[in-house]
Amino acid sequence: MSTAAVAAGTPLLQTVGLSKHYPLTRSTGAWLRREPAEVLKAVEGVELAVHPGRTLGVVGETGSGKSTLGRLILRLERPTSGQVLLDGHDIVEGGREGTRKLRREVQVVLQDPYTSLNPHQSVGDALGEALKVTGTTPREQRPARVAELLDQVGFPSAWADRRPGQLSGGGRQRVSIARALAVGPRLLVADEPVSALDVSVQAQVLNLFQRLQSELGLAYLFITHDLAVLERIADDVAVLYLGRVIESGPAAALFADPKHPYTRALLAAAPKLGQRRSTSSAVRGELPNPIAPPSGCPFNPRCPAATDVCRSVVPLTTTTPDGLRVACHLYPGSTPGSDAPLDGAAAVPSPLTGAASSPSPAPSTWRHS
């Protein structure tokens, strides 16, 4: 985990009220009945900040909106509303120059190293092509720059002649990281970069991410479904559920004492050192239909602490004394018009221990161990 301090002033990257809605095509019958078109709200009002030299981890189940959020930040999708700010400037409204700046400053490492590289290109050609397209390195200097990039990810320069098929999964991911570094970015968006790798190889690639951050001062937006990975690499964490951030804050505080029942359940499902990975999710039930999400708190159908207000009122985001921001009626300030936690929620079964715990002001008995 990076020990870099949060830079004063403007974050490197920030999202403000970021939303992405996908209108769905109506059937002929629905059109004849003049039924309103359905809308899938993949991302809804997301507020995040990535500071220079730090790692923000974004975690959630499949379908929570993580990858859509990454595409919005990379400007591969245009937001329905909200802003993505790079150095305080809106990349959506920045025009062609804003796009060029984004491509220089922000690069991506994708999940599958087997499909993200051209199998017919050598490693050197793949890296050289990135240098050529971006115009960052004169032609005569490209071989030296390719050798430098390979050295940064732990490969000898002679490996420039190898093709992706001659490399392991971890080796291909190292090449993908080297290609992302070719233009000298300040931020890498890593979308599930180790989920397709063996556990031992995952550790090696995570070590590489940490070393590069220390040497180059990189910032990371690290998207994953695995909190065990974030516990190792993240400085800050944002937990997504049905496109909304339901808990966020410093990683140390979140892993020491998670607040939202969903975060606790994810931690309970995460593999621990020396233990086998759980074969079943600790989050009961299925993810609701994002086209017709439940009223009130989106997590209420699966929450062991849900009460009537959870089923009818969307919780506000409040800040706890240890710096975590959580949207849950269990905490003072989350219920509109009330500064007290929910009545009748004094004894709630813990998703981690099964024991009852008190939600006021912060249920420390649900601490992750």
TrEMBL record:
**UniProt region (Disordered), positions on chain:** 338-369
SUPFAM superfamilies with a match to the protein in the record: P-loop containing nucleoside triphosphate hydrolases (SSF52540)
Going by the entry's taxonomy, the superkingdom of the source organism is recorded as Bacteria
Which Pfam families does its entry note? ABC_tran (PF00005), oligo_HPY (PF08352)
Name the residue ranges with Low complexity bias.
349-359
Keyword Transport (UniProt): yes
InterPro entries assigned to the protein according to its UniProt record, in alphabetical order = AAA+_ATPase (IPR003593), ABC_transp_ATP-bind (IPR050319), ABC_transporter-like_ATP-bd (IPR003439), Oligopep_ABC_C (IPR013563), P-loop_NTPase (IPR027417)
Q: Which family does the entry's similarity section mention?
A: Belongs to the ABC transporter superfamily.
Q: What is this protein called?
A: Oligopeptide/dipeptide ABC transporter ATP-binding protein
Organism equals Microlunatus capsulatus
